[in-house]
Amino acid sequence: MQEIPLREYQRKVLEEVKNVIDGNFAVVSMPTGSGKTFVEMALAKTFLDKGKVLVIEPTRFLCDQMARTWGNYLNASVQYDGKCNPGGDVIISTPITALNCLEEMRDFKLIIIDEVHHAFGSKVYENLLKELEGTKIAGFTALLPSKKVKKGPLGIEPVHLVYDFKRLEELGGFECPNAIGDIYDSPMEEDERRLYMNLINYFPAHLLHVFECYGIKSLHESCKKYAEKDKEELTEDKKRILEAINNWIDEIEKLASRPSHKARCLEEVLHQYLSMCDIDEIKPVIIFTRRRALAREIEDNLRNKLDLEISLITGELEKRKREEILKAARSGNVDILVLTPVGEEGIDIPSAGLLIMMDLYKSELRFYQRLGRLLRKGKGKLKYLVMILTPETQEYDNADIPMERLLNEGVDLSYVIENFQDFIRKRGAHKIAEKEIRRIIEEENRLYVPISHLSGNILDFSGLIEKISLLRSLGDPVEVLFNVPAWGGLEKEVKSRIRKEIKLATESEISGMVRRANLALARGSLIYIYDPEALSTILLAIFTRTKEIFDRIKEEGYTRALASEWGLWRLRHKEILMKYRCYAPIDKIKDLEQDLEEKMEKIPQEIRYLVLNLSFIYEHPESPLPMSEKYKPYYSEKRHVYTVPLRILFEGGECNIFVPYHDVYLDELEEEDSNEYKKIMELNAFYSACLALSRFLETSKD
């Protein structure tokens, strides 16, 4: 057996792990390519004089790959597919096989979990560790997002040792990889763009996503699969989607006869880099995509265009063939390697000099794993990272999300990507919606654009209630949905069913243009209010129901405490409130404020003073109740919700209604605009309440 070679930084990491593992569960985060496998082996060796070591890999492919490496330094054996093989000092296994074979092999002194992020939230891992409770555990991964750390197997929060590129270099002996990043625009051609804009209002988000990220050929394949579904089992919403597919399939099929916009852009990228670098300096070029259809298109297209050795690995490929391709790639016999997600973990090809991402994950972990295929020590110091993105789409706008999340996890990619700040510059998918809203405002001389102008499927509130059968069986729908004690009294399962029915009833209303408008809210280029007329309809229903409740309480033995409890309402269910959104560009904020103030001035004083919050804004000298913090508007920065409380004075007590404004990103706005936006939301809620009160009082007189 060979001696396990360790560099200075690996020895120091090993010592730190040994110092904390007495706490039974330690997790080590080290960048891919930094040699964490050698730290794992060295740690295992320190325990072998006490007993055996179990190494858990998430897949059979990784079991085989690790067994070859471990076998050079330790007496290791591999087992999976349920075949129990307790031979060797080190057993390398998948979690399922290890769990099934515990009767034949229990005496482990150490468990090493490679790619340990798989263990968090997994019942299989949890059951395995429960059976081996008390055994010391060391997990290794490139990245463990902080949101996962507190959800460890068996509820154990691990000791988390984090080493990024900078930290390893500080420990000594680590040669930091160096890369230059670039983003290439992959625009659709005019006829593709025209089709895409037409489909926005008819196709669901997941099919639009396929078109954006993977191209027309992948969309064509997805549509064909959708059309093959059993029509008898489709819901009404899915039948509408199928109808839309049938209406557009001929045009989709026609455009799918040529290479997609992503495949065309890839040709340009490769042409530029191969004219700048000799293929021997950067091979194998690694190309990642999540979609098999695009992977196959890329392989076919490049074989016809380039005189290079091109290989494709997908999850469908048998293990033996996959290993042959990887061996050839490591030996320098593959020029371009096209990979689907099966290649994101455990593939070690240090010579790779150019990594091209055809699409992006929002997940910082998945993005980091992909990046790890490039950021490994190899020949040639400088490497290249390319992202190919479709402009004016959501993909474009989300490009910086995984990198920002990595920064939040303490992983500073600027240490290894020279032009990192330029690389994560923001994009403009939301501009489509902003442009459309400005057009409508100008053509129709409006201050804001109701959501119904962006999506033609919006149901009114009564129409929505008709679609939710469970609500009608529980009593008054307004009370069930919005009254705090009534909603709180429902069983958890009933609440879950109501939420599900609301989601099913409203999901077809949210067109692609609406999604882009909501994305623009997050970028601070649009704001919204609720349609006052529509919101006042719900508030009127609440006022009417409140009076009925107060009258009933009075008949049964009135107490102010009981009235206060049942007079509490919250406009929950974001999907319902979204139906009343009216969008406006941020630069219209002062015009919007002025319009609402003018409308408020026209409300009679006797109505305004019944809204107790307003009595302070308008300095009512005889306001009956003090203004407490509880009834002031408040902002949840974490949830991006601004809540405006309404206090309405009734004969039998107070009616308190909390009106939430979701998707409010005040941190994206300048301080002055942020303060103006708060005031607009408050005025919007108050004005809607005053409209409802006027109608309520008129109805009461009748």
TrEMBL record:
Occurrences of domain Helicase ATP-binding (ranges): 17-162
InterPro entries noted in UniProt: Helicase/UvrB_N, Helicase_ATP-bd, Helicase_C-like, P-loop_NTPase, RLR_Helicase
One GO cellular component term: cytoplasm
Protein name: DEAD/DEAH box helicase
Keyword Nucleotide-binding: yes
Helicase C-terminal domain location: 269-424
Residues forming coiled coils: 224-258
Top-rank taxon, per record: Archaea
Keyword ATP-binding: yes
Record organism: Candidatus Methanodesulfokora washburnensis
GO molecular function: ATP binding; catalytic activity, acting on DNA; DNA binding; helicase activity; hydrolase activity
Keywords (A to Z) from UniProt: ATP-binding, Coiled coil, Helicase, Hydrolase, Nucleotide-binding
